[in-house]
Amino acid sequence: MFAGNRILRYLVLVLIIILWLSGCSSDSSRADALFVQAWLEQEAGNFTVAEELYEQAEDAFLSEGRQDRAKDCRTARQDMAVIELTYSLGEADLRGMLADAFPGVPEAEREAWIAGGGLEHAVIDGEPRYFADVVPNIKFRNVDLFRQDAAMLDHYEQGYLVLKAIIDAGPGPDPWQPFINPVTYRGNGTLQIPRERLPETGALQLWFPIPIITGAQPAVTVSSITPERYVKNPPSIDEDIGLIYMEVNLDELRDDLDIALEFLFDHYEQRFVVDPENIGDYDREGALYREYTASCGNIAVTPEIAEKAKDVVGNERNPWRAAKKLYDYVIENVQYSYMPHLALWPRGLPESAYVHENRHGDCGAQSMYFSALCRSVGIPARTTGGWQLFSGNFGGHFWAEFFAPNYGWIPVDPTAAEIVDYLTDVSDEDKRIFHDFFFGSQDHFRCNVQKDVDVPLIPPAQGRVLLPMAIQSPAALCDTMEEIPGMVIQEHWELDATVM
Predict the structure, then answer these.
(1) How many CA atoms lie within 13 A of 251 on its CB side?
(2) Which residues of 422-452 are buried (b: 16+ CB within 10 A; e: fewer)?
(3) Considering the entire predicted model, what is its pTM?
(4) What are the tens digits of pLDDT across the range 440-483?
(5) What residue ranges in 8-145 does DSSP mark as E strands?
(6) For the CA atoms of the chain, what is the radius of gyration?
(7) Nearest-5° angle of CA 221, CA 224, CA 225?
(8) Which helix (H) or strand (E) holds 204?
(9) Residue ranges of the chain that CATH labels 3.10.620.30
(10) Residue 448 Rama label (left phi>0; alpha psi -120 to 50; beta)
């Protein structure tokens, strides 16, 4: 499961060995050798042995004054800890959870779920470990079981009604105007961490997510940051990712860490009325085209993805019609499921490759897969987002956009469209209307924080943040912290929305 780009990984390993054998000192050779051994054990899933070897390698690197390589050891140990947290269920735990969650399902059928290999898992220290969100994922992949969960069904029904009201309202008096009906939101974020949860010394680096300026989100204001003394960079509201970067000198921190920020933004509903015959030609030498048709990070365009896209699109060369075919393919073939994001890229597979192999994924994963399919047939696409406000408060959400000459970036949200497929009292025609709306149109319950996944932080992080592809809660680094900084931050971060 964590093979990822194994060829690249082994090339890196070969390079390390070559450098090691090409004249390092005896001390350096020992440190590098320990690191290589640890890496091999980690790749084999032997985390306990790898942990011990990385600790030894870290001590050896520190004795040589090679701080960067010691940091690599700490990063690798944290990566393994993240993977173990993601796959936290042993087989006994799993069986107990399945029995409690599905008492009406015969035991033989539950055992078949496990034996079939379709439940997300990893082999760690020789034992299968299962994804913590395995129960809801079984429900998402079995509509009958989903509908037996009254709370989940009600949540989807309420979401459908909220979104259907926007669809039924129509495009407004000026069909040529793609941005209509703006709503102003205020966001209040607070980070309050007890002093004892932080190291006595060192620097805590923090990147707080904030809205950015886009076509659908043209007005953004950061109205307050408290305390201002931690701020090192101005808010990047006009960049590809919205961040407020802060540094906290822990040597000087005497009391609990208490940070608050407030921002305002307008977000418009989008209604693109597109004539497919009026779409112009791409500038295939331009920077936009080259960037957003490239294979990169979590939007990896593998040969298998490219082959699937060609099969779905067939002889269609019109970008609008081709993108619609790919959108319909994702809706019909990729089931919504929670994702083991933390264990994937850069710790394992790119998200687009994972979705292609497994045929399921959440909002970001589905959108990254759609973007990879588009890119593979020459349609510029990206996965954008940050938060949704369907329930009135912030919740993580990502969707896709593809670029159409003469029109711009067109919104696409296969995950929002799939809400209707779990409901019982919706006609096939209403389902079709609901699906089609989210290809080219979008509600106003959104907040753009970044234009694409895998956008570098501002300033770039010199280390691995918890979830580098999507910054929906503050990203954090701290070299003196034994705990995973991002996990501690998530425990103490709150973000609330108010409609103005």
Answers:
(1) 2
(2) bbeebeeeeeeebbebbbbbbbbbbbbbbbb
(3) 0.94
(4) 999 999 999 999 999 999 999 999 999 999 999 999 999 999 89
(5) 121-124, 127-130
(6) 24
(7) 120
(8) strand 203-209
(9) 150-169+273-439
(10) beta
Domain spanning 150-169+273-439: CATH 3.40.50.2000: no
Q: Could you identify the residue written with the tokens 């699109």?
A: 313
Contact by Cβ (8 Å): 79, 347: yes
- Comparing C-alpha atoms, which of 449, 373, 365, 451 is closest to residue 411? 451
Q: What is the spatial distance between Cα 130 and Cα 86, in angstroms, rounded to a whole number?
A: 8
Distance between CA atoms of 314 and 322, rounded to whole angstroms?
9
Nearest to 446 by CA among 320, 270, 277, 288: 270
Nearest alpha-carbon partner for 282 in 249, 254, 320, 253: 320
Task: Round to whole Å and give the CA distance between 140 and 118.
Answer: 13
Joined tokens for residue 138: 């079984």
pLDDT at 172 > cutoff 90:
no
Bond from prior residue into 227 cis (ω within 30 degrees of 0): yes
Q: Each residue of 196-247: pLDDT tens digit?
A: 999 999 999 999 999 999 999 999 999 999 999 999 999 999 999 999 999 9
Beta strands 360-361; 335-336: pairing state: parallel
> Rounded to an integer, what distance in angstroms lies between the CA atom of residue 376 and that of residue 305?
7
Helix 363-376 vs helix 351-358: angle between axes, to the nearest 10 degrees? 90
Whether the CB-CB separation of 347 and 431 falls below 8 Å is answered with no
**Per-residue pLDDT at 15 exceeds 70:** no
- Is the Cβ–Cβ distance between 208 and 244 less than 8 Å? yes
The answer to whether the CB of 248 falls within 8 A of the CB of 221 is: no
CA separation, residue 475 to residues 191, 285, 351, 394, 429 (Å): 12, 35, 20, 17, 43
Nearest one of 75, 414, 83, 452 to 296, comparing CA atoms: 452
| Cβ atoms of residues 137 and 120 within 8 Å | yes
> Cβ(134)–Cβ(120) under 8 Å?
yes
Question: How far is 418 from 398, CA to CA, in rounded Å?
Answer: 14
Q: Within 13 Å, how many C-alpha atoms sit on residue 475's CB side?
A: 26
Q: Name the percent of the chain in helix, strand, coil, to the closest 5.
A: 45, 20, 35
Average pLDDT of the chain to the nearest whole number: 94
Q: How many CA atoms lie within 13 A of 281 on its CB side?
A: 3
